[in-house]
C-alpha cells in the first residue's frame, strides 16, 4: 500500500483529498502544516506527498526545497490556489514534480498521483514493463519472451523517454535537448532518423508504437492489453 502524505492546513480540503485516496486503496497520512509533515517523514516511509503552498509557518515551497536538499526524492504534487506561471515556475525550481490548481478535481488528482507513482517506480527500478515487453535501462535492451534487442544508446534513451510518459507529446527540440544535450551540433532531423529506426525495429511488436503528431512532435502509445 502506498503512503500518501497530505499537507494541508484547511481540514475540509484535507478531507476532500483524503476521500478519493482511500477509495483507490492508498494510505493517506495527514499533516496540518509543514512541521508536522517533517515530523512524520522522520519516522514513516512516504511514497508521495501532496502539499498546499500557503500554510502557517513554513510554506509549501520551503518544505519542498528542504526535502530535496535533504535527499528525499519521492514525488511531490503541489495543490494550490496560486495559478500564475511565476508561481508554477517557482514550484518546479524548488523541486515539485507536478502542479494542480484549486478547486480540486478528484478524478484529475488521482490520475496525476498514479502517473507520478508510476514514473517513480520506473526511475527506481530503471525498468519499464509493457505486457511481456521489458525495457532495461542498465543493459540498453528491449526484450519479450525469447526475443532480446540491444539498442544503440541514443535510440534506447529516446524510446525509454517516450514510453516513460505514454500519450505525452514531445517536440523534436525537447527530445534533442534532453537526449543529445543542449550543446549538440546535431540537427533536429536526427530525432526523426532515430524514430524511423525504432519504428522499423519494432514494427511487429504490438505492445507499443510511436506516433507522429503533425506539427507538434512524437508520442508513444502503450498497448498493455496485448
Poorly predicted residue ranges: none
DSSP helix fraction: 40-55%
Silhouette: elongated
Count of beta strands: 11
Proportion in β-strands: 15-25%
Distance between the termini: 27 Å
Order of helices and strands: EHEHEHEHEHEEEEHHHEE
- Radius of gyration from the CA trace? 20 Å
Mean pLDDT: 90
Number of helical segments with 4 or more residues? 8
Main beta-sheet strand count, sense and barrel state: 5 strands, parallel
Structural class: alpha/beta
Going across the biggest sheet, name each strand in turn.
2-1-3-4-5
Can you give a write-up of this model?
- The protein is of the alpha/beta class and 226 residues long.
- Helix content is 43%, strand content 23%.
- It has helices at 11-23, 34-43, 60-69, 85-94, 106-125, 153-164, 172-180, 189-201, and strands spanning 3-7, 27-31, 48-51, 76-80, 98-101, 127-130, 133-136, 141-144, 147-150, 208-213, 217-222.
- Helix 1 crosses helix 5 (106-125) and helix 6 (153-164) crosses helix 8 (189-201).
Highlighted features:
226 residues, alpha/beta, five-stranded parallel β-sheet, 11 strands, elongated
Produce the secondary structure layout.
Blueprint: E1 3-7, H1 11-23, E2 27-31, H2 34-43, E3 48-51, H3 60-69, E4 76-80, H4 85-94, E5 98-101, H5 106-125, E6 127-130, E7 133-136, E8 141-144, E9 147-150, H6 153-164, H7 172-180, H8 189-201, E10 208-213, E11 217-222
Parallel strand pairs: 1-2, 1-3, 3-4, 4-5
Antiparallel strand pairs: 6-7, 7-8, 8-9, 10-11
Helix pairs in contact: 1-5, 6-8
Amino acid at each position: 500500500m502506498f503512503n500518501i502524505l497530505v499537507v494541508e492546513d484547511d481540514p475540509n480540503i484535507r478531507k476532500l483529498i483524503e476521500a478519493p485516496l482511500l477509495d483507490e486503496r492508498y494510505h493517506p497520512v495527514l499533516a496540518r502544516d509543514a512541521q508536522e509533515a517533517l515530523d512524520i517523514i522522520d519516522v514513516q516511509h512516504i511514497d508521495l506527498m501532496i502539499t498546499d503552498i500557503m500554510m502557517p509557518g513554513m510554506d509549501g515551497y520551503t518544505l519542498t526545497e528542504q526535502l530535496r536538499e535533504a535527499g528525499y526524492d519521492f514525488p511531490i504534487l503541489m495543490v494550490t490556489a496560486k495559478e500564475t506561471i511565476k508561481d508554477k515556475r517557482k514550484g518546479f525550481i524548488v523541486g515539485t514534480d507536478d502542479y494542480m490548481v484549486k478547486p480540486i478535481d478528484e478524478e484529475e488528482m488521482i490520475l496525476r498521483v498514479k502517473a507520478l507513482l508510476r514514473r517513480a517506480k520506473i526511475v527506481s527500478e530503471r525498468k519499464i514493463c509493457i505486457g511481456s515487453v521489458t525495457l532495461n535501462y542498465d543493459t540498453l535492451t528491449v526484450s519479450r519472451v525469447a526475443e532480446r534487442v540491444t539498442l544503440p544508446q541514443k535510440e534506447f534513451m529516446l524510446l525509454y523517454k517516450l514510453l516513460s510518459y505514454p500519450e505525452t507529446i514531445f517536440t523534436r527540440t525537447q527530445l534533442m535537448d534532453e537526449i543529445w544535450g543542449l550543446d549538440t551540433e546535431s540537427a533536429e532531423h536526427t530525432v526523426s532518423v532515430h524514430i524511423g529506426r525504432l519504428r522499423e525495429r519494432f514494427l511487429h511488436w504490438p505492445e507499443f508504437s510511436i506516433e507522429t503528431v503533425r506539427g507538434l512532435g512524437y508520442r508513444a502509445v502503450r498497448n498493455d492489453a496485448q
